[in-house]
Design brief:
By secondary structure, the chain is an alpha+beta fold. 29% of the residues lie in helices and 32% in strands. A nine-stranded antiparallel sheet has the order 6-2-1-8-9-17-18-7-14, with helices on one face. Strand 15 and strand 16 form a beta hairpin. The radius of gyration is 20 Å and the shape is globular. It starts with 5 loop residues before the first helix and ends with a helix. It binds the ligand C=C(O[C@@H]1C=C(C(=O)O)C=C[C@H]1O)C(=O)O. Keywords: Isomerase.
Length: 370
């Protein structure tokens, strides 16, 4: 993907400082940036995914919705594909007045050792109920802040992600309340149109071996992904018919590989996609099993707010094509730091050092383009 001409580049970068809501995204295996822009006013918010029934727009839903962190629906007043059309859509837009930057981030950053120490403590809290067989799987995640480079450009970073990660859905999304997020996710939660729908079970992680894809999976990884498949199969059967499954197979995501199963199914109608999202989210790829108990446990025990990480991001359009993803390998852009997020599935046999390393490798997806 090319960088657009300088005026568009600056305009989009400036939009990330303003009061306007927009999303710029690129679907896997395409080279087409898509802009969704709300012309005025604050975007609509919702407290539950079910409230998305019948709605159209660019959705950004958190791991756990609250008043402070609601589900956001950017109204598609303007939708434009490719830089030429995006330039036309933005013609007449002036660079918005810069708003006061949110939350001055002057707090001391913990050192790498302190971050690992904290992670290890929380890992201890997570492994105990797993070993006591209270839960079958838990996903433990963390955040890490790092300074933005002096010449940081959100749009430049978006284009770099598009060029580095052809298999992933790349997004740059800004709203006045949610702030600015950039991500590169490998995981569909719900996509399709008409009667044909698709979701995936994605779990298990290994680093690429140079340019070679490792394909020998440990029992732990296979089991972890099997849990997600089992959950998705059940959830999808509640709404869809004619379920077909392909996998598990090894799928590349940047410098990592995962185990993946595709699920295709038929829906009779598309006015209740919110109900399906509510049933699916949070899948055991980002939460745990059993769902309700592990969701509560994570909210109470993980020790930080996941915000929009491991929520849902993408285009919802019940009358045309929907492409919704799990918001992974993402970062929140602050005034002069980026907050990166990553997690991984924990089973009773998990070990703290390799799980920590896995979160580092996942965060590198964003670090490598900063
Ligand atoms: C939780 C993340 O990724 C998820 C967890 C995985 C795992 O536990 O192996 C693999 C892919 C994703 O479903 C993340 O990227 O932060």
């Amino acid at each position: 993907m090319n960088i657009p001409e300088t005026s568009i580049h600056h305009l989009i970068d400036n939009l990330t400082h303003g009061g306007r809501s927009f999303a710029l995204y690129r679907l896997p295996w395409t080279d087409e940036p898509i802009l969704v822009l709300q012309a005025d006013g604050m975007p609509e918010t919702a407290g539950t995914l079910a409230e998305l029934n019948g709605k159209e727009g660019f959705v950004m839903a958190p791991f756990h919705a609250s008043d402070r962190c609601p589900i956001i629906i950017i109204r598609p007043d303007k939708v434009a594909r490719n830089w030429d059309k995006i330039a036309e859509a933005l013609a007449g837009e002036s660079a918005p007045e810069a708003q006061a930057e949110e939350g001055a981030q002057t707090a001391e950053q913990p050192s790498a050792d302190e971050e690992k120490q904290r992670y290890a403590e929380t890992f201890g809290l997570f492994i105990t109920p797993l070993r006591q067989k209270q839960f079958r799987k838990l996903v433990l995640s963390r955040q890490s802040r790092q300074p933005l480079p002096d010449n940081f450009s959100p749009l430049g970073t978006f284009v770099k992600a598009c060029n580095s990660y052809p298999r992933m859905m790349i997004s740059l999304c800004h709203t006045p309340t949610g702030g600015t997020w950039i991500g590169s996710t490998p995981e569909v939660i719900l996509s399709g149109n008409g009667t044909d729908w698709h979701t995936v079970s994605l779990a298990g992680t290994m680093p690429m071996n140079g340019e070679n894809m490792p394909t020998e999976w440990s029992t732990k990884n296979k089991e972890e992904q099997g849990f997600v498949s089992e959950y998705i199969r059940k959830a999808v059967k509640k709404f869809g018919s004619r379920l077909t499954e392909k996998g598990p197979y090894t799928a590349r995501a940047g410098q990592l590989v995962h185990l993946k199963t595709d699920f295709h199914f038929t829906l009779k109608e598309t006015q209740h996609l919110g109900d399906i999202l509510q049933e699916l989210h949070p899948t055991p790829a980002v939460c745990g099993l059993p769902k309700d108990e592990t969701y509560r446990f994570i909210l109470d025990t993980e020790g930080y707010d996941r915000s929009y990480y491991s929520g849902i991001i993408g285009w919802l359009a019940p009358r045309e094509e929907t492409t919704l993803y799990v918001n992974l390998r993402c970062m929140h852009i602050g005034k002069d730091t980026a907050t990166l997020y990553a997690g991984g599935g924990i089973l009773p046999t998990s070990e703290v050092d390799s799980e920590w390393e896995e979160t580092q490798q996942k965060m590198n997806t964003m670090r490598n383009i900063l």
